[in-house]
Amino acid sequence: MTVNSPLPKTTGCRETPVLKQRGQREVFCGLTGIIWLHRKMQDAFFLVIGSRTCAHLLQSAAGVMIFAEPRFGTAILEETDLAGMADAQDELDSVVAQLLSRRPDIKQLFLVGSCPSEVIKLDLARAAERMTQTYAPHVRVLNFSGSGIETTFTQGEDACLASMVPVLPVSTSRELMLVGALPDVVEQQAISLLTQMGIGPIRVLPAPRAADQFGVGENTVFALTQPFLGDTHAALERRGARHIAAPFPFGEEGTTAWLAAIAQEFGVAQDVFDRVTAAPRDRARRAVAQASESLRGKTVFFFPDSQLEIPLARFLTRECGMTAIEVGAPYIHQNIVGPDLDLLVQGPVLSEGQDVDLQLDRCRAARPDLTVCGLGLANPLEAEGMTTKWAIELVFTPVHFYEQAGDLAGLFSRPLRRRGLLKLEAAE
Description:
photosynthesis, four-stranded parallel sheet, Rossmann fold, alpha/beta, oxidoreductase, about 15% strand
């Protein structure tokens, strides 16, 4: 006897018509993903081929102290490079040679494209192939785009992980792969729960070090921990791996459903599953109930930003008692977020893409109790008297799985409590 789905059958929103808009967007730069990726991959270096603006963005986002030596940097494109007066490939070779001679601890080097390097059509794929021939086997050189011209900020991680999949060796072993960068403490919680159920071996992409490299093949099954990994999902399926579709592990319900889908794949008995998950499930329920008191009965409006919007809307409507007015996402990948759409309470407008002016009009007309949006919209909306939540904070903060469920609810309830306190002070 194996684990049954813990979720009730619902009509959900999978068949809900999606409002698709293409216009001016408000997005954050994909280079931001380097900030959490360089902490996960301990022997990797991320070299952005970009401008001084790129360098300032990374340093500001990471809060790097002047005496630190982080594992990311920017190869500055000067005026001569942009004007075609210098051979950018030769310049890049020189920068990489200096970097690797000074940092022999680097085992993986990512050449990261930016808006400037893409505008001048700098071929970083060719550069990575050339450098791999030069520096292999000591250093593996890969490339991906972190440009924000056509993408949202979480796609930097997706592009990075997708670039790693083709170079993974072939494996015939039956293994579980967890895909997506998580804080170490959260990742360890997930692995611990799965290990207690007898599931293994468990691999993680991205792995902490190049030496931890593992294979992929037709016997590999993978579970995504982040909903924005569409390119990585496709790359793994091209290698023969099979995706375990499930709601994402946000809140008690989502975490239980995610674990249950994996447990069912590996034939875990129901009593084993219940024994392993009973205590953390109870803690998560109580934590969410306490943290979401101020959310119940409130309305929420999601602008498209992180691609976490659909799973988070499912969490807020089903576990926190909120009503979603609109759930906007940069992209809606049915094969990835379909299980969350199945559970999302019917009623909200589902929108894909963005015409920011039109969406702002809908938000102002609805006057939601809470608006989840990017940094560029939060301050103007706050000035209009609306309560906002920064979408980017949901990516930088540990929010997955049981032990973080209460913290996740708290991230949404705090802006509402703050607004209530300010009103009390103003009244006094």
